[in-house]
Amino acid sequence: MSEKYALALHGGAGPKAGEDYTIVEAHLAELASMGEELLKSGESALDVVEIMVSNLESSGLYVAGKGSAPNVAGQVELDASIMEGHTRQAGSVSAIQDVKNPVGVAKAVLENSPCVMITGEGANKFADEQGFEAVSDPKNYYVLPVGVTQADIEQYEMMHGTVGAVALDGQGNLAAATSTGGVFGKPAGRVGDTPIIGVGTWADQDIAISCTGTGEFFIRAGGALSVANGYKLAGDTLSKALWRMLDEVKRLGGDGGLIAVSKDGEIAMAYNSDGMKRASVSSGSDLISTTFAKSD
């Protein structure tokens, strides 16, 4: 077992300049410290990214899980995905309703289903069969995340938020996970990039990536897999591979960010929006947690 490990988290690339995200940065730092200890104790990258994202979902601080808003039909539809790099096993759910931890359901798809993605009513049925906790009182469960107002969620302006984690464990394995409540004021059934393996989430033997932003533009720009290909095939540095895809997102009219970790333990985090809530730690670098600081 190697002593090398790395972990990066994001809480979305949708923060507003001028808002106070101190509580979010403290929460991300706390989670990163927890994840570091888990990796140092021998936990797998796959389990760690699920634990990290589950905690982000449960906190109510981000636009995912408890912090998600209803669509125009009054339903809270959630998307999540997870992928393990060495085996390329992956699982995702889309438009699943009122499940407390959709990333856990996505991991169950990876482990207990021949499918990669399950959607809508089928995803809810699968979650129930697998014993996942449902939200019993939706009207009183969901909360407004930090920096989001009621007016924000009542208009469809592609305002967004997502959470995610990428990790390298002591066995040299990589994993990534992503979860979201989607853009505010979205139409029923709308699905962005988050649950699409290769777009919102990707992990292979060389790199793990989680994206956040306006999903329609990430889909059209090629998303996470285009980053992986730039890094592995075009010879881009990790940072350049992230920016190459982000620049295409911007050219198409969108914004957002992404985090990545390589098999060597290098971490890169980049965004072209006002900011991105993020934290990282590795065997070769100290823990950082920030929102508006200059991205890689």
What does this structure look like?
There is one protein chain. The chain has 296 residues and is of the alpha+beta class. The chain has one domain: Glutamine Phosphoribosylpyrophosphate, subunit 1, domain 1, CATH 3.60.20.30. The chain contains 9 helices and 12 strands. The protein has an 8-stranded mixed beta sheet.
Could you state the order of secondary-structure elements as H and E? EHHEEHEHHHEEEEHHHEEEE
The CATH topology assignment is Glutamine Phosphoribosylpyrophosphate, subunit 1, domain 1
Instruction: Label the structural class.
Output: alpha+beta
- Spatial strand arrangement across the major sheet: 4-3-2-6-5-1-11-12
Give Rg in angstroms: 17 Å
Name the overall outline. globular
CATH level 4 superfamily? (Glycosyl)asparaginase
Our estimate of the beta-strand percent is 15-25%
Biggest sheet layout = 8 strands, mixed
Unreliable runs, pLDDT <50, ≥5 residues? Answer: none
Write down the domain tally.
1
Second rung of CATH, namely the architecture: 4-Layer Sandwich
Distance between the termini: 29 Å
Count of separate DSSP helical elements: 9
